[in-house]
Design a protein that fits this description.
Layout lengths: L1 H33 L5 H23 L1 H32 L5 H17 L5 H14 L7 H18 L1 H8 L12 H10 L7 H9 L1 H5 L8 H36 L10 H4 L5 H4 L4 E3 L2 E3 L1 H19 L4 H15 L19 H6 L1 H7 E4 L4 E4 L9 E3 H11 L3 H25 L1 H17 L9 H10 L12 H34 L11 H7 L4 H22 L4 H13 L14 H17 L15 H13 L2 H5 L3 H19 L5 H34 L6 H36 L1
Helix pairs in contact: 1-2, 1-3, 1-7, 2-7, 2-9, 3-4, 3-6, 4-5, 8-11, 11-14, 11-15, 17-22, 18-22, 19-22, 21-26, 22-24, 22-26, 22-27, 23-24, 25-27, 26-30, 27-30, 29-30
Length: 742
């Protein structure tokens, strides 16, 4: 009974597989042949049947040991049943004593059948049994019911003997290649309704059945091309319909969890439903062609990459992404890596790389403060202004590496080159050139009368007169545009200064852990001394290189200002740029223009509409100091005694106004006090500009002319040459003394 039950069970499984296979093939092929669309429900039902088909095959495969063990016993049992019937038939024939050749043939056939059945159930033996029984059933040796039993038993015997092969044939899903369009729908449903997620292995198994037939293709040069195309198509479906939606859904879910304090859509699971995506993450790796698709690892990689990239874009969000990582571990069991980004300040500000790439925008949108070494945004659509200081730059350098400093200075050089071209064009303009020559000649002829001071009225007249040459749509004169150009050049130099300070700041922060900079221990030597492994010695050597590099950068620092002066100065001082020689003559009207602009900006600070308001703009002083150094005109400008002339002018005006203050007229007194206040404000601005310019000149060693600098260089070279000569003399004398001794 047990063996019969097992036999029925095996055959039932085989029949189910054949029925399902026939049903799926028929429905799919009919829809294709008749060009009839299939509903989504029908497609998903067919997918379920395909899964069931592969599940049957998989079940037989998993229970191979049990099936193999049972099959021999079942075959033996079925053979015994058949032999019993044949034995009965033989007795009937042998009981009849009449001799005939026909009876002898039947008997021989039955004996042959018996011999074939007494052995393993191979194809040949079963075929022999069938042929023998075709002869053996003549002469009514068997009763009807016996024939039925024999026929049924032989069929079972055949099925059981070739069970493995027949199961493989019944469960073959190679026809799915022509209907693979259903696969994306299946994946979409799997992500949408997360139930029985493990069944995806059965569907992939069905797709895998398409591969063996591809080896036999003849219409292509190589079957490999077809397989690659199939692989690419299925992989694309996997990515677009399973992996990407899954990653996005999990990321969205984590975000909604972390931002529950915000007013979000209704997330009540009783109203909007609930998907537990963790079931998909528990699916074992899926084998397809020569690789495995691990859903969990893919999602982990996606979240690691997304969180890292978004944290680098907005460093102040690091805490949010940290919480999301913890939530991913608790809810989905995802193990995410730490970002390992360098520690940042919460007010990171603009990145050095971003500024470097858009330096032309930066110098026009930000204002420089010389004393605090800070850049302040000129205007903003937000309620706050962005600032950039040394700490921000140091953090950026720490993030990107010290190498970025040289690249930044190189970008600044390219920017200055373009700006100096415009600068040269302005100075070459006939109106400007002739006016400057005229003013210079006037000062040269009348400097004794004006007490060696450039007259304030002359500069003021130039400032107002240039407006007659034309204005921009914004109402700016040519001198206003020139002032803006000088300011932008100065802002660029201020940025270079800040880069250098930020680099030193970064180096000092990194090097503070080294106990004594004068006596740096060599880790490589220490490792060699202790005879540590080669890898450890290599690591120690790398550490030594890093420490030495830091110490060198900290001790020296690069003189970027000197570099930017040396690279442009020869060209500026060249005779072919003779039109620049009167640049210092334009400074008086230019400073007047700047002071008027500065006061106008500061007054706007107190207004409700703060468009154009500013409280600092030291880029102008920085730009003037740099250009004067390039043209070697510090002493020429000092010969004007311009700021002394300004002080004298305002002092004189204040004295005149003070004389009128004695009047008893109340209105006149109010006017006088306002005028004095106005004069004090102007004088204060000029003094501030004078101090800023004096400070900026220190960066470019304003105390030396180009001739004095050349002399200093020559002296230093001579001194170094003298030292080397002394060394050579000492060596020669020591050689002579050793020779005499020998």
């Amino acid at each position: 009974e047990d063996l019969s039950a097992r036999c029925v069970l095996f055959i039932q499984g085989l029949l189910n597989a054949y029925n399902i296979s026939h049903l799926v093939r028929t429905i799919m092929n009919l829809h294709v042949a008749l060009s009839k669309p299939m509903t989504k429900t029908a497609v998903l039902s067919l997918c379920r049947l395909l899964e069931l088909l592969k599940a049957i095959e998989h079940t037989f495969h998993r229970r191979t040991m049990l099936v193999t063990e049972s099959i021999n016993h079942v075959i033996q049992h079925l053979s015994f049943k058949t032999l019993s019937c044949i034995s009965t038939a033989k007795k009937r024939i042998m009981s009849d004593k009449r001799y005939s050749e026909r009876r002898l043939d039947v008997l021989s056939a039955l004996v042959l059948a018996e011999l074939a059945l007494n052995g393993p159930g191979t194809k040949e033996r079963l075929l022999t049994v069938k042929l023998a029984m075709a002869v053996g059933t003549k002469m009514r040796a068997f009763k009807e019911d016996e024939l039925q039993i024999i026929d049924d038993t032989l069929k079972r015997l055949e099925a059981i003997s070739q069970l493995r092969l027949k199961i493989r044939q019944a469960c073959d899903c190679s026809f799915l290649y022509w209907h693979r369009v259903i696969f994306p729908l299946y994946l979409d449903d799997l992500v949408e309704n997360v139930t029985d997620t493990h069944r995806i292995h059965y569907m992939v198994g069905a797709l895998r059945d398409c591969v063996p037939q591809m080896h036999a293709v003849k219409h292509l040069e190589s079957s490999q091309k077809m397989m690659e195309s199939f692989d690419k198509e299925i992989t694309k479906n996997f990515n677009e319909h399973l992996l990407e939606p899954l990653c996005r859904s999990i990321e969205t879910d984590l975000r909604l969890h972390i931002h529950l304090h915000l007013q979000l859509d209704d997330r009540n699971p009783f109203k909007v439903g609930m998907r537990d995506l963790s079931h998909l993450l528990k699916v074992k790796p899926i084998r397809f062609f020569d690789r495995t698709i691990n859903l969990k690892v893919h999602v982990e990689h996606y979240l690691n990459k997304t969180f890292y990239n978004l944290t680098t874009v907005a460093l102040h969000d690091w805490k949010t992404y940290g919480e999301m990582k913890n939530m991913a571990e608790q809810k989905y069991g995802l193990t995410l890596m730490e970002s390992h980004l360098p520690s940042q300040t919460l007010e990171q500000g603009l990145d050095v790389l971003e500024i470097m790439r858009n330096i032309h925008v930066f110098v026009s949108k930000f204002l420089y403060n010389l004393n605090n070494q800070i850049f302040v945004e000129r205007t903003s659509n937000n309620k706050h202004l962005n600032t950039i200081n040394i700490r921000h730059v140091a953090n950026s350098i720490r993030t990107h590496g010290i190498g970025i400093m040289n690249t930044t200075v190189n970008f600044t050089f390219q920017f200055l080159r373009k700006k100096f071209f415009i600068f040269s064009q302005f100075m070459y303009d006939e109106h400007i050139k002739s006016r400057l020559s005229k003013d210079f000649k006037f000062f040269k002829d009348n400097h004794m009368l004006t007490d060696q001071k450039y007259p304030f009225d002359r500069g003021d007249k130039f400032n107002k007169g240039i407006r007659k040459l034309g204005l921009t749509p914004d109402g700016d004169s040519y001198l206003d545009q020139f002032r803006t150009l000088v300011t932008q050049i100065g802002n660029a130099m201020g940025y270079v200064r800040m880069i250098r300070s930020g680099g030193l700041h970064c180096c000092s922060n990194a090097i503070r852990f080294i106990p004594d900079l004068e006596d740096i221990v060599s880790f490589e030597d220490a490792c060699k001394q202790d005879e540590l492994s080669a890898e450890t010695q290599t690591a120690a050597k790398n550490l030594d290189n890093v420490i030495n590099n830091l110490a060198k950068n900290f001790a020296e620092g690069t003189e970027y200002f000197k570099m930017l002066v040396d690279v442009f100065a020869p060209e500026f001082r060249n005779n072919k740029n003779n039109h620049l020689k009167n640049f210092y003559v334009i400074l008086p009207p230019l400073t007047i223009n700047f002071v008027e602009h500065s006061i106008s900006c500061k007054e706007k600070m107190n207004r409700k509409n703060k468009v154009g308001a500013a409280f600092t703009d030291d880029g102008f002083a920085m730009g003037l100091a740099y250009i004067l150094k390039l043209l070697d005109q510090y002493h020429d400008f000092d010969s004007f005694h311009w700021f002394q002339s300004v002080r004298d002018k305002f002092k004189k005006e204040k004295e005149e106004v003070s004389k009128q203050a004695g009047s008893r007229d109340e209105k006149l007194q109010q006017t006088t006090s306002l005028t004095l206040k106005r004069l004090d404000q102007y004088l204060q601005e000029y003094e501030l500009l004078y101090y800023s310019l004096s400070s900026a000149r220190i960066f470019f060693r304003a105390d030396l002319t180009s001739a004095e600098e050349e002399k200093e260089k020559a002296d230093s070279k001579a001194a170094s040459a003298g030292n080397s000569t002394d060394d050579q003399t000492n060596v020669a004398s020591s050689q002579e003394s050793s020779a005499s001794k020998s």
